[in-house]
Amino acid sequence: MLDIGWSEMAVIALVALVVIGPKDLPKAMKTVAFWVRKARKLASEFHSGIDQLVREAELEEARDAIRSASQMNLDRAVEQTIDPTGEVNKALSPADLADLPDPTSEEPVDDRPALAPAASPAAPAVAPPTSEPVKAEPVKAEPA
User: Fold this and answer.
1) Which of 12, 37, 110, 138 has minimal CB crowding within 10 Å?
2) Displacement of CA 121 from its chain's centroid (Å)
3) Nearest CA to 118 among 108, 127, 126?
4) Angle at 70 between CA 67 and CA 71, to 5 degrees
């Protein structure tokens, strides 16, 4: 802080001894120590006050960030991030969705194209599926 070495302190002590005198020197040192202590305490309070102001400013910034985050429309922010031009929203508008089948209906929708009839008369006929389970017979190994 003041960067005073031992040699400077010795010179100051010698001058104080000559100027103040040996009788009043202890009282003068006590007074100087009191004022130095008071100055250190004042500097410490100033330093803690500045630290508190910095913490309050940081807390105020954090409060503002929390307020802005809580007031933000999350749906709109996500929509702006994903689809800033609005093309996807236009492509999926309700007018285009009216042509799609209702997902809550019970009828299954068969979007597969119908099978064309067999071109050759020799094509084997396939039996329609039945509700009865098919029993499989075990295969017997023939001796070789």
Assistant:
1) 138
2) 69
3) 126
4) 85
In the DSSP assignment, the letter for residue 72 is S
Quick check: is 76 in a domain? yes
User: How many independent structural domains does the chain possess?
Assistant: 1
In this structure, is residue 46 part of a structural domain?
A: yes
Cα separation, 51 vs 59, whole angstroms: 12
**In a 3-state reduction of DSSP, which class is residue 36?**
helix
* The overall pTM is greater than 0.70: no
Question: Which residue's structure tokens are 């929203």?
Answer: 89
Q: Structural domain of residue 42, as residue ranges?
A: 22-82
pLDDT tens for the chain, 144 residues: list them.
Answer: 567 788 998 898 888 889 988 898 899 989 989 999 999 999 999 999 988 888 888 888 888 888 887 777 777 877 888 888 888 777 777 765 556 666 666 665 556 666 655 555 555 555 556 666 666 667 676 776
Domain membership flag for residue 137: no
pLDDT digits (tens, 9 = 90+) for 76-93: 877 888 888 888 777 777
Q: Which sign does the torsion angle of CA 36, 38, 41, 47 carry?
A: negative
pLDDT tens column, 29-50: 899 899 999 999 999 999 999 8
